[in-house]
Amino acid sequence: MESIRVRLDWFKIAILPHEGALRARLRRIVNRPCDVDDLVAECMTRAYANGDVTRTTSGKAYLFQIARNLLIDEARREKVVSLELVAELDVLHADHSTEATLHARDELTSLIHDARFRARSGHLLRLAVLRGRPASLAFVSPHSD
Fold first, then answer.
1. What confidence tens digit (pLDDT) does each residue in 73-92 have?
2. pLDDT in tens, 98-123
3. DSSP state of 54
4. Nearest CA to 40 among 13, 9, 18?
5. What are the CA-CA distances from residue 34 to residues 22, 38, 91 (Å)?
C-alpha cells in the first residue's frame, strides 16, 4: 500500500505538472486534434505504470520521451502495411480482374470506333464544304453522281 502512495505522490509532483506542456507540444506536432487527447492519456498512463520512482530525475524529460516513442511507434505502424491486407487486396483484384479487363477492353474498342467515326465524319463534312456540296450530302460518296 505504501508503494502505491509513493508512486502517486511522485506522479503528482514529477509528471502531472507537465501535462499542459506536453499537450501544447503535441498540438503543434500532430495533425488531428482528436489524437492529442489520446496521446496525452497514453503518455500519462505509461508514465504512471512504468515510471521508476527512484531513478527518474526529470519528470518532464521522461514524459516527453514517452511521447516521442509513441509518435515513432505510430509512424511505423502507418508506414508498415499488413501482409494480410495485401493478400486480401490481391484476392479482391483477382476476383474482378478478368471481367474488368474484358469490360475495359470493350469500352476502349467502342471509344476508338466512335472517335474514328467522328474524325471521319468531320473530315467528310469539311471535304464536302470544300467541294461546294451541301452538308446534307457530305456522307454520300462522290462517285455516286
1. 887 877 665 555 555 555 54
2. 676 777 778 878 877 777 777 777 66
3. T
4. 18
5. 15, 7, 34
